[in-house]
Specification:
This protein has one domain (3-116). It has 5 helices and no strands. The protein has helices at 3-26, 38-48, 50-62, 66-83, 88-116. The model has no long low-confidence stretch (mean pLDDT 95).
């Protein structure tokens, strides 16, 4: 794999991982609803942001070790899909991007190994 292609693939995986975290984070806005005290809403908002923060930590861990992102994002996609089997629209919306990011990280990892040896 050419160096330029590998660089683009690497950055695509990273950016998609960050975008997935931001997408999941949007759902935290549900914490703010009419009539709810702002203190409680902010607390709920913080709790709802935990999955996004964990995904961002996962992207950071995968920055130099793409296999970590590949394995973890694919595992999260499968786990989520199995946990909400009765809602295929949710599976597609959440597991789809997670799986895409995971496969890109795995593809990056394979490309890096082939480039080295």
């Amino acid at each position: 794999m050419k160096e330029q292609t590998l660089r683009i693939l690497t950055w695509t995986a990273r950016v998609l991982g960050i975008l997935v975290a931001l997408f999941i984070g949007v759902f935290a806005l549900d914490a703010f609803e009419a009539g709810k005290p702002i203190g409680r809403a902010l607390g709920d908002f913080g709790i709802h942001l935990v999955p996004s923060i964990l995904l961002l930590v996962l992207v950071a861990l995968s920055w130099r070790r793409a296999w970590i992102g590949g394995a973890a994002f694919v595992a999260l996609a499968v786990a989520y899909a199995l946990s909400v089997r009765e809602r295929p629209d949710w599976v597609l919306a959440i597991s789809g991007p997670l799986l895409g990011a995971g496969l890109l990280f795995l593809w990056t990892w394979v490309g890096q190994h082939r480039a080295r040896g």
